[in-house]
Amino acid sequence: MNPSRVDFLVDLAYGVLIFAAIILFVVVGTNVGIAFGLGVFISYMIHVVWKMARFDPEWMTREVTETVEQTVDETVGKEVSEVINKLEAINERVDRRPRTDEIEEKVEEKIEKQTGEVEEKIEEQTGEVEAKVEEKIEKQTEEIEEKLDKTAVDGDA
């Protein structure tokens, strides 16, 4: 027997079975026709895979390789794009944070402002203390001069 004739006869038999499924669908009922038709179709798909593997043994390997490559490309592409999106989000958050030079600048401004206020208070208090010290010195000087004048007057008498 010639393999091509056997394949032709098998394909013809499947065609007859599919036609029988259509007739059963119309005559007996929907459920029986669908069940028989699905059975014939599934067995035909198995037959086609078997035939492809017989005529071209590398066919299944190529198909699986192509499917795996496509799946890997899609998966890796999705994961890489997700990682890139996460990195961009992190970069945006980092960019929104104040930089160290900005922080140092603000700290220096506050320190200068507070230092200026402290110096003003010190100057005010120093001025007040100086005024009080001068008053006390003048008062004590006058008292000493009075005592000296008194002792000088008492010493002359």
Please give a quick description of this structure:
The chain is mostly helical and 157 residues long. The chain contains 4 helices and no strands. Among the domains are: 53 residues; 42 residues.
Q: Can you put this structure into words, describing what you see?
A:
There is one protein chain. The chain has 157 residues and is an all-alpha fold. Among the domains are: 3-55; 116-157. Helix content is 94%, strand content 0%. The longest helix is centred in the C-terminal third of the chain and has 57 residues, at 100-156. It is rod-shaped and about 165 Å long.
SSE layout and pairing:
Elements lengths: L2 H25 L2 H26 L2 H39 L3 H57 L1
Helix pairs in contact: 1-2
Computed Rg? 54 Å
Enumerate how many helices there are, as a single number.
4
Class derived from helix and strand content: mainly alpha
Low-confidence stretches: none
* Dominant shape: rod-shaped
Main β sheet profile: none
Strand content: under 5%
- Helix proportion range: over 70%
Mean pLDDT, nearest integer? Answer: 82
How many angstroms does the end-to-end distance come to? 169 Å
- What is the string of helix and strand elements? HHHH
Number of strands: 0
Region (Disordered): 98-137
Biased composition (Basic and acidic residues): 98-119
Keywords: Membrane, Transmembrane, Transmembrane helix
Transmembrane segments: 12-45
